[in-house]
Amino acid sequence: MSGVTSAYPAHAEHELLSTEECTLADDILNQSQALLDLPPYDVRVTKRVTVGEPEHTPFAEFHSELVYFSDGAIRELTRATPNARWSPNISPYPVSATDALGTGPKGINRNIIIKGLAERGYYVEWLHHQGRHAEIPTNPEALKRMIHFIFGKSVGRSAHHQHALFDHLAEFGGVIYDPSLLFSVGDSRSAETGEAVDALAPQNNRRVLYGDYIAACFEHKPEPKEIPELLSIPLREGFSLGKLALGKLIDFVRSGDPRHITDYAGTLDLHPMNQLHELAWIWPSMCGDAGKYAKAVPLDAVGTRTLMTGDVMSQHRSWKEVHKQRRYIRFILIDGTHFDLVHQQQDRLDRFERLAISLREHDFSFVNITEPEMDEVIYGKDSKPLAA
Known about the structure:
Blueprint: H1 21-36, E1 45-56, E2 60-69, E3 74-82, E4 95-97, H2 108-119, E5 124-127, H3 140-150, H4 155-172, E6 181-187, H5 189-200, E7 207-214, H6 227-231, H7 233-255, H8 259-262, H9 272-279, H10 282-286, H11 289-295, E8 303-308, H12 316-322, E9 329-334, H13 345-361, H14 371-379
Helix pairs in contact: 2-13, 4-5, 5-11, 13-14
């Protein structure tokens, strides 16, 4: 998309974002200042341990690891490796991801998103949030570390963990892809974290070639005028969740296919330690940190932001304002509430299916995908942009 030749231009080739040079200068200055304002966080992976037995499907192999970080965090990693039968259709760019609030290694994350991406030829490195594998406070030092994590949650620290993981994979992982070039996905909280992953990529000598985020929460801290709408969230989302569950039940009855139910079983991780850590995430997800990192996302970032217009948490107008100077980020607005993000998973998998086709057509070189071709990846061949 440099002109119409590259979907991810080098900074030196970046085309003017405005006909007025002063606007471009302001955009560059604002983005640079936002990056400088982000708090540092030094963390590295100390070890990775394989756990459990691998799962094999006709399309991919899946296995789990426990990842130990230098700050004391212990997070589970689900790794998906496409089956060799897909070569030469395997993407050279892995997909990085983490969990939406309350979810874990099972249910929609594994059965729909991870498997769906792997079946389309993508390596997946899904770093689950700290929870059931977190250290149990059996002594004062362990209690001190737990308090540190409970009161130190942030999308930035989570993103630093993801970059530390790819640093470790680059050095010790034995991967055949390049860990410096990523695709990234996320929903809800993990879409917030995705903004931070994008923002921190350059300082980690990494590029997020394409970020696909759905229903990111709270670009800014809630303002007093927004409180009445926030109070309506339990009713709105409760109704939406009930409608979603009823719809899956009807699909099961009509088709007789139990996967309409079983694929979503276990989506919510109810382990006590996970619930404790997830409760601690509520305010960090609301405090506006995601918006601070979004302002620091490179101006030439390529991506899709899907938001529901009836989702009070998503603040879709604010997200569009934050990214208005990033000409390669597309917005898709859907009539729905936050839990309707479940219905958007197939659309995203379709985007990655089209992206895989486009990559093959360009000898797996992302930079050779033109801007019109990338729009076709995002919207589909015969669809018009929905980002009005």
